[in-house]
Amino acid sequence: MGRIRQLLKVRGRDSWTLFDSGARNTYVIPEVAAVLTTSPLAHPIRTALGGSLKASNTAALLEAEVDGLPISTHAIVIEKIGDDEDGKPIEILFGALAMQQWGIRLIPEQEKIDLSHYPTEFLEF
Asked: CB count, 10 Å around CB of 51?
């Protein structure tokens, strides 16, 4: 498992992001969701995150740029993700499913993400 921190650009807004291969889903806080397309969920989603149980009734379509490359993925809106190791509030937790979808790999020893597998087109069978 790896964790890399960096800024994502969400509709012109810089958002402090934790890329976490140990988290399955992607999460955003309400301040980020405010500039995204959101929709209510028919059933709440409960998640154990950061040592506590969190619930959400809202999903968002996260459209952002990672190192200048566009991505879009499903995200769950939660009130607070938590703080990083330096005490900085995490605004987006980018999970393993979204990383797999966009070919993002983590290089923990360099504290960087690898976008060399970013898809320029999707080939569906």
From this structure: 6
Whole-number percent of the chain with pLDDT over 70: 98
Burial profile 53-85: b = 16 or more Cβ within 10 angstroms, e = fewer = ebebebbbebebebeeeebebebbbbeebeeee
Distance of alpha carbon 118 from alpha carbon 3, whole angstroms:
18
Give the fold, CATH level 3, of 3-114: Cathepsin D, subunit A; domain 1 (2.40.70)
- Paired sense of beta strands 27-28 and 69-77, if any: parallel
Residues 6+ apart with CB under 8 A from 106: 2, 3, 4, 19, 21, 99, 113, 114
CA 60 to CA 115: how far, in whole Å? 23
Per-residue pLDDT reduced to its tens digit, 9-38: 999 999 999 999 999 999 999 999 999 999
Residue type, 4: I
- Quote the pTM value: 0.93
Average pLDDT of the chain is: 93
